[in-house]
Specification:
Blueprint: H1 20-55, H2 59-75, H3 80-89, H4 93-109, H5 113-126, H6 134-145, H7 148-170, H8 174-182, H9 201-204, H10 207-236, H11 238-241, H12 259-275, H13 291-300, H14 310-331, H15 338-357, H16 367-370
Helix pairs in contact: 1-2, 1-3, 1-4, 4-5, 4-12, 5-7, 6-7, 6-12, 12-13, 12-15, 13-14, 14-15
Length: about 375
């Protein structure tokens, strides 16, 4: 019987093949990536759930809150479109978001800024959309380091990895590499848009519309930055809040940011960019699907919510599920229609209003309340 030689330069044994057998092997690899991603996301949700349980006052409200969050955790596993993106379509968006979620876990649950910055930068190297999380990460680095110098050190980790990975291209075709990496002048195809199908094509592709969306994006980020700043002053005190603008750290006091605050801040930063995106293609759904229940539930079932009243639990729960269902519906209609895009934008507006109007989660872990 003839034996098959093993090519050590091709560990998957595919040899560049696009046969059904080769594609099936790759799909099983993506199945493994999907399971890993789901596990990391559920770990993020569980970290927030444990914090919510610690801050509840009564046993009845705790039980209600736990079941609400279990519903949210279940929703993260039920998206038909996300299953397709990971297992059937094999887009690079999937591995990029896995690394992003791992970096968030390192930031929120392991208090590991340096390693988190490494993984975050690796995610950016796969897909540039991860930069939508960057405004939130910048704020977290400033608050955690309590100095500009410490923040610059962690940002240099991200930059050095990008420089290292891009060095072969930067030393050969630097202008083309940088231009194609950002491609601000790119014109998207109207036929693939999921979020703006109710607009005429001439408006969708126009420069003024692009500038309007950019202005809205920056404007809402500015609003949230001011809101986060006011929350820092109210929760930490004015003197402590201003420490983050010092060049060097004022003292050796260590601030421990709460998991819910870290996760909420990064998810909210990304979500604003999604709402005002020039276009959303079907594979872009995995950029923010996993953040939807988190943002909706934190703005509805935070530690200050009442667990015993029907209007405080059931009505927000139903509204949140309908919002997620509206977004899921829009991303499962192909090709997109005016109705599906309208449903998507209404769901987006509902969540954006909740983020803008709701309180910022507890910034710092109060260890006295935990004992």
């Amino acid at each position: 019987m003839a034996t098959r030689s093993i090519d050590t330069t091709d560990p998957t044994g595919l040899g560049g093949s696009t046969s059904p057998e080769a594609i099936r092997i790759i799909q099983w690899m993506f199945v493994a990536l999907y399971v890993i991603n789901s596990a990391v996301v559920l770990m993020l949700y569980n970290a927030v759930l444990q914090r919510m349980r610690q801050q509840q006052n009564t046993q009845s409200s705790t039980a209600t809150m736990v079941w609400c969050w279990r519903i949210a955790m279940g929703i993260t596993c039920l998206s038909k479109r996300v299953h397709s993106i990971f297992v059937l379509r094999l887009f690079n968006d999937a591995p990029a978001m896995i690394l992003l979620h791992i970096s968030m876990y390192l930031f929120a649950c392991c208090d590991s800024l340096a390693l988190g910055c490494v993984v975050f930068s690796l995610a950016v190297s796969i897909k540039m959309n991860v930069l939508l999380f960057a405004p939130g990460l910048l704020l977290l680095l400033l608050q955690k380091n309590q100095s500009l110098f410490g923040t610059i050190q962690h940002l240099s980790i991200c930059a050095s990895i990008q420089l290292f990975l891009g060095w072969p291209f930067l030393t050969t075709y630097p202008i083309s590499y940088i231009k194609k990496a950002f491609e601000f002048d790119r014109v998207f195809f109207y036929k693939w848009t999921v979020n703006w199908k109710f607009l005429p094509e001439e408006i969708f592709t126009s420069k003024p519309w692009t500038l309007i969306l950019l202005a809205c994006h920056l404007g809402v980020l500015g609003m949230l930055a001011n809101k986060w700043w006011q929350s820092s002053i109210s929760q930490l005190g004015g003197a402590n809040a201003r420490k983050l603008m010092r060049w060097t750290k004022y003292n050796n006091d260590k601030i421990e940011l709460s998991p819910e605050y870290v996760i909420y801040t990064m998810f909210a930063s990304n979500y604003v960019g999604i709402v005002f995106a020039r276009t959303l293609h079907y594979q872009f759904y995995c950029w923010y699907f996993y953040s939807l229940p988190m943002l909706l539930w934190l703005t509805s079932f935070g530690p200050s919510s009442s667990g015993g009243k029907f209007s405080k639990v059931v009505l927000p729960l139903v509204a949140n599920v309908l919002a997620v269902a509206g977004i899921e519906y829009a991303f499962n209609v192909f090709p997109a229609t005016e109705l599906s895009s309208a449903a998507l934008q209404m769901s987006h507006a509902y969540l954006l209003l909740k983020v803008v109007s709701s309180e910022v989660p507890s910034i710092q872990i109060d260890k006295e309340k935990m004992t």
